[in-house]
Amino acid sequence: MGRCEYVLAKDSVNNKFEIRQVNEACENGKFSCTKSLTVIFPTVTIQLLRGSVVVGGAEVDLPVSYGGVDITRSGVRVTLVDSDYGVKVEWNNVHNVRVTVYGRYIDKTSGLCGTFNRNPEDDFLTAYGATVGNAVDFGNSWKTDSCCDNATDVPHPCETYPGKNATATANCSALLSPPFNVCARQVDPVLQGYVDDCEYDVCGCGDDPTVCLCQAIEAYVAACASYGVSIDWLSDDRYQQCNSSCASAPCCNGGTCSNNGLSFLCSCPPGYAGDRCETE
Length: 280
Known about the structure:
Largest sheet: 7 strands, antiparallel
Distance between the termini: 22 Å
Order of helices and strands: EEEEEEEEEEEEHHHHHEE
Radius of gyration: 19 Å
Strand order of the largest sheet: 6-5-4-3-2-1-12
Strand content: 25-35%
Number of domains: 3
């Protein structure tokens, strides 16, 4: 996706929910990452920012509830929105977003997450009601602001940066071996695209692929957890860097992170300021 706000998923029949995602430049500035989410229900609108939650224009402390909508922390940094509307949103405050909708929404959803009708052939249904074959055209149709620049086709980053191929292959193939292979029957990392996505992200990262690798692994581990398979990977010496402050990608708007003891420092690009480069 590009660097706009997009509709991830919505109830296109009864308008019971809508989930939007804002993207920003990440790592080397050539690709986009999640900056924030907006979760809209009939009774409340919730904005999820990195490290904070805003309702009605004011930051709120968690846990908190609003008439059948619960907002909590799950684990160290995952923000969880659960609701009586049959919709659940999980965000690890970095790159990974998971949207779960219940069976009541079969044949009723649209957006970047696709249609929920057991027919993968029309998952690229645009906001205009046409099915397209190109992911970029599909994504651009779900922008919430038509004035925002369209995303364009870009080469695979492993083709653009061939020198990173070996690193990406070596790091991402770890999903096929212990401790991750205990989940292979439930979530096949090859057939379901986790290895390919990992290689794409690691090649697309800047000089240090730590954040992208950690996020790719965390996405797979989260998928396994949804099937009841728990993977203890952060205790493995190979992934200790994923416990660092910078592994959570705290710097916004293309800022560069450096670890500072148990915290971090952000070096902001021109035009941005703040502890996280969040102010333009």
